[in-house]
Amino acid sequence: MASPVVAQRPAETPARPGRRRRPGIGRRDHLIGWLLIAPALVYFIIFLLYPALAALYYSFTEWDLHSAPIWVGLQNYTDLFFDDVKYPHFWKSIQVTLQYTLVAVPLTLVAALGQALLINAIRRGSNLFRLLLFLPVVTAEAAVGAIWRWLYDPQYGLVNAVLGLVGIPRQNWLNTPELVIPALAFIAAWQCGISMIIYLAGLKSIPESIREAAVIDGAGPVQRFFKVTVPMLRPTTFYLVVTGIIAALQVFGLVYVIFSGGGNRSVTGGPEQSGLAYVLHIYLYAFRYNAMGAACAMSFILLVFIMIITFVQFKFMKQEAS
Amino acid sequence: MNQKTVRRLPIYIALILLALVSVVPFVWMLATSFKNGPDVYTQVPQLLPLDKKTGEWNPTLGNYEYVFTISGLGTAFWNSVWITCVLVPLKLLIDALAAYAFARIPFPGRDKIFVLMLAGMMVPTITLLVPRLHVTQLLGVYDSPWGIILPNVASVLDIFLMRQFFRTLPVELEEAARIDGAGRMAIFWRVILPLSKPVLAVVTITSFIFHWNDLVWPLIVLNSPDLYTLPLALQQLASTESGRAYYIMAGAALAVIPVMVVLLIFQRRIMQGIAFSGLKS
């Protein structure tokens, strides 16, 4: 994300010689500059930089937040990977999260692209449809979880009632291990509005001349879609895939709400841990079992994973640009 | 003309179906929230609040009354209102000041700091939660509204967006103001900010929506039920009253409706903002 910023830097240098002639303004300007970024910088150090470094340190300790952390070296990491008595659901949570990502990201993008293409094809009412399809995005995840729990209700839920119209038998969506991931992925696709808007912007930026050229060359709508639209949208799709993966790996609030129930602050991670997302697993260890060290180790594994994905994205973008 | 309409008919039908999928969950939420308890659980789904036995018109506001007073969602609603109303302007000010310096005031080390901040955006929230909780305890703001406000009071992404916008403003305007004797701060308030309404609006609205909806941080930093924000209180309601969909849907409606109103009013700006920030980053 940083590269375009650095590249734009020379923009203000031409103005500098003129300013230099006025005595004192340079140093006073430095001071004002520091003062203006001071609040943000203090925030950054206290709530971002220090926590990130502290989390790395705690990941090498055993810590319950109240007593002093005890240094244990790499033990948290080795235990997470190899001790399935101490952390019985660690690998399961990775599996659940990867499955969810693999289903939810493509489903969301297909839904978003489909909606964008349809909206792009009409004039009258396009703003209204765009608004209606965007509504799920701005909804609080606590509300999304609550609403969908009710929609997926095995006995009185609307989902089963609608599927019943086309002859699909009732399912206990959130209580059948095999159905949990599809049910969650459908909610993710229901909330695809942001990707839809970005695809719409991408579609609008395809020059009309290219489309016309394809028409003149005798390309039909299907051919135009695969030979013009899809390749032209490739940067957009790439961006959405990467950000979608990063977001899906961190899914938490929704599963937390969906699988909390039957008592005060009790969370299970769904039937047979089928909805035990990786971040939910971290949350449970940190704030339920007070195993802060192990939780920090898990969150650092996630951080490394996300950094690798971001790095790959950079490489690809550079390749694309050159 | 007529042929064109016919050709577009399947597109409209598809869009209407998709829009229904999008909207029906909210309609169903509202429908359930106005029903009396026994009328909610019918074998055939019933949109209107009709009495289960007699089929007569039988709506109620009782669910809202119950969650607002007895479940504490009323308190939570006002907590959310005032916390967002303090947090969002404060955050906007801190971010705008920093963004202006990053965009226009050159000083040694500035760009290194900026790149470091951007790199910090990569760190997933979950990694920060435990140390942040510890920091709020050390600062003495754990389990208080300030425990929500302080850890959210600036945003690197917003600084980035504003900086990008400030850089597009013509430098000549500032130079002219400077010749007229205006200092940096006067230029910021009287020249930069008035010209930056579009980006300020986008950042304000998205911040409002984000903090109004945020569940995770309040879940971690709040302990006392009378300090709960609305999403947290709703999550608790959904957990403790899990058998009573009518209460939960009334609670969900309380959380959803204010944001929907904001979306309806500012939809154009929000859509532009997403297209802008999405494509930029």
CATH homology superfamily of the largest domain in chain A:
MetI-like
CATH class of the largest domain in chain A: Mainly Alpha
Q: CATH class of the largest domain in chain B, anyone?
A: Mainly Alpha
The helix/strand order of chain A is: HHHEEHHHHHHHHHHHHH
What's the arrangement of secondary structure elements?
The complex is a heterodimer of chains A (322) and B (281).
Chain A: H1 3-7, H2 16-20, H3 25-58, E1 61-62, E2 70-71, H4 75-82, H5 90-120, H6 126-134, H7 141-151, H8 158-165, H9 177-190, H10 193-204, H11 208-216, H12 221-232, H13 234-249, H14 253-258, H15 278-288, H16 292-321
Antiparallel strand pairs in A: 1-2
Helix pairs in contact in A: 5-9, 5-10, 5-13, 5-15, 13-16, 15-16
Chain B: H1 2-33, H2 37-40, H3 62-70, H4 73-104, H5 110-120, H6 125-138, H7 145-149, H8 156-168, H9 171-179, H10 184-195, H11 197-213, H12 216-221, H13 230-240, H14 245-280
Helix pairs in contact in B: 1-14, 3-4, 3-14, 4-8, 4-11, 4-13, 9-10, 11-14, 13-14
Key phrases:
heterodimer, A: 322 residues, mainly alpha, MetI-like fold, 2 domains, two-stranded antiparallel sheet, globular, disordered N terminus, B: 281 residues
Task: Outline the structure in words.
The complex is a heterodimer of chains A (322) and B (281). Chain A has 322 residues and is mainly α. Chain A folds into 2 domains: 74 residues, no CATH class; 201 residues, Orthogonal Bundle (MetI-like fold), CATH 1.10.3720.10. Helix content of chain A is 69%, strand content 1%. Chain A has 16 helices and 2 strands. In chain A, helix 5 crosses helix 10 and helix 5 packs across helix 15. The longest helix of chain A is centred in the N-terminal third of the chain and has 34 residues. Chain A is globular. Chain A starts with a helix and ends with a helix. Chain B is mostly helical. Chain B has 2 domains: 60 residues, no CATH class; 209 residues, MetI-like (MetI-like fold, Orthogonal Bundle), CATH 1.10.3720. Helix content of chain B is 75%, strand content 0%. Chain B is built from 14 helices and no strands. In chain B, helix 3 packs across helix 4. Chain B is globular, with a radius of gyration of 24 Å. The mean pLDDT of chain B is 92. Chains A and B meet through helix 1, helix 3, helix 5, helix 6 and helix 7 of A and helix 1, helix 4, helix 5, helix 6 and helix 8 of B.
